[in-house]
Amino acid sequence: MPSTLFLVLFFVLLAAGAPIFLVLGATAMVLFIADGKPLIGFASLILDNLNSQLLMAIPFFVLAASFMQRGGIARALIDMANAWVGWLPGGLAVVCVAACTVFAAISGSSVATAMAMGTILIPAMIARNYPRPLALGVVGASGTLGILIPPSLALLVYALIAEESVQRLFLAGVVPGLIQAALFAGWVMLTAKRKALPRREALTGREFARINLRALPALSLPAIILGGIYSGLVTISEAAALSALVAFLVSVFVYRECELRESLGVVAEGMKSAASIMIIIATALVFGHWITESGMTESLVDFAVEQDLKSWQFLLVINILLLILGMFLEVASVLLITLPLLLPLLEPLGINPIHFGIVITVNMELALITPPIGLNLYVLSSISRAGIGEVVRGILPFIVLMLGLVALITYVPEVSLWLPSLFYDGIL
Length: 428
Prior knowledge:
The protein is an all-alpha fold and 428 residues long. The chain is built from 21 helices and no strands. It has helices at residues 2-15, 20-34, 39-50, 53-70, 73-85, 91-107, 110-127, 132-143, 153-162, 166-172, 174-195, 205-231, 236-255, 263-294, 296-306, 311-328, 331-349, 353-367, 375-384, 388-411, 414-424.
């Protein structure tokens, strides 16, 4: 009976378009009542789940991303990328890929990356006679690196639910992220040669040095975040707090594109976004607790064992499922709905949970650019005033590349596991 009630209530609320925190929270609350448990236990679980040092990192990373988007850091990184790779075929589009890769190593958010880069680079590419679909596509696709290159909010959420090492997950995202960036840059250069797109003239040595010196304050952010975490000097939450503080100082006092009187508004905006994320995570953890207590996960494990399901078959089915879900639900929704059900299946099937975290995350990158609900599509449409159809046309080649990347990451686990093993397991 509770399982039937779960399915009916869950899908009715989802179909009605209820916010995901309400879907998860209301379903869990009704099921607590159906099981005869007092609601005080429901409230207690929410408070216990919010009392997490790892969860406290999320608002600080979101706040840092808000300042980076508004405070001139994005422009400094774009200028630096242009100095290094702007001379290549399709230079501005390659600059977009390179700048998104570096910005992703600071922000942890795909939407923030796409918005910050698109605001500057889409008009610049169109002014240089780049086809508008190509300009839209490369920004939208490269922006997805924000949730794969560490630090990543998606990987933080995965670590919280799966109870896995954040440090290992962050390292596992590096090589797949660099491969993705290389795929996009290669495609852009081939397209540029075919369409004879313009290149930037060579910079003088003095100009090259000036641009790179100006970018140093922006580059201090990934050094603080990742250097602090992997040196052991700070915890994840302390690194996140430091990144928010440094992003504020650099934006207001170095690049000065965000005035001091505007900073309170940026903080409020960042806290609003962070609060919505934390509410969703708290209700999702309670939802996952009920699923575990109900025996539903054990039933799924037994079913997989009875069917003699191989790991490659399971991963293929999951990739297809995530692709379909990603077309209709946002990233947080897909993660928080599926993970409580899928994670218990990993050990019986011999699947490494760190590897699975990267498989999930790359699928979520696809979710950000697949119609009809891909968030990056609407971000690009908003900042460029282009129709969704034009955005989708520009992003289609990158979707094909991403599907190839999903296959590689899924069936060659070493791509994601090599760096964490090198760093932590003494294979040096």
